[in-house]
Amino acid sequence: MRVLLVDDQPLVRAGLRVLMADSPDLAVAGEAGTGDEAVRLARELRPDVVVMDVRMPGMDGIEATRIVTAGPGAPRVLVLTTFDDDEYVYGALRSGASGFLVKDMALDDILAAIRVVAAGDALIAPGVTRRLIEEFAARPEPGVPAPPPSHALTGVTAREREVLALVGRGLSNGEIAERLHISAATAKAHVARLFTKLDARDRVQLVILAYQAGLAP
User: Fold this and answer.
1) pTM (2 decimals)?
2) Parallel, antiparallel, or unpaired for β 49-52 and 99-102?
3) Architecture of domain 2-123
4) From residue 101, how far is each of 79, 89, 105, 117, 189 by CA, in Å?
5) What is the tally of helices (H) and strands (E) in the chain?
6) pLDDT-derived band at 149, boundaries 50, 70, 90
7) pLDDT tens digits for range 161-212
8) Closest by Cα among 195, 68, 40 to 122
């Protein structure tokens, strides 16, 4: 898969580039040091994933994410930043990011996160606390589902509730399949049905709904 690296620090981009060089399934499509460059290169290069910093000169990573993820065929965005402040988490998720990680994570975990996001899953750093998710969920905006009423999950099967709970804990489809002793295809099908039944736009919204329904710890 092709990855666009966006960070105003050349050393960070170089480190990610070297790290990805040892992964045959990952290729650096390009690099950008500002949000404006990120928007331009995302349009020109059409990468599969954009690894996006938040604090950059000019247009920040939050606004760049909003623009990059707009429209059909948009790349997935993984926000990778030094800061896990509430403002950045809310901004990244609401702008369409599929993942939010902090730079102190293990390098192998960052590579794994790129693959998870590229596969259509969402991923939030363990250090982003339940409080942040709950506060995010409590601030409805257009396109974000309001807290469900008590009967909102009545059409969801017991197995789908199990799957939703695991999605809320940040597990990927593969991890859900392993945990429930089902095939990856079956796990993916359960998640797809949850999208439809709960009218969720993406996996991040499923995470929010899992917390609102009390299924995630």
Assistant:
1) 0.69
2) unpaired
3) 3-Layer(aba) Sandwich (3.40)
4) 6, 9, 8, 11, 27
5) 10, 6
6) very low
7) 999 999 888 788 888 999 999 998 999 999 999 988 988 877 777 887 887 7
8) 195
Q: Distance between CA 80 and CA 61 in Å, rounded? A: 10
CATH 3.40.50.2300 range(s) for the chain read 2-123
Length of the chain: 217
Beta bridge mates, 4: 30, 50
Topology, domain 147-213? Arc Repressor Mutant, subunit A (1.10.10)
Give the C-alpha separation, 116 to 25, whole Å: 13
Q: Which residues pair with 3 in a beta bridge?
A: 28, 49
Residue 151: the pLDDT is 47
Residue for token digits 């695991």? 166
pLDDT for residue 152 is more than 80: no
Q: How confident is the model at residue 129 (pLDDT cuts 50, 70, 90)?
A: very low
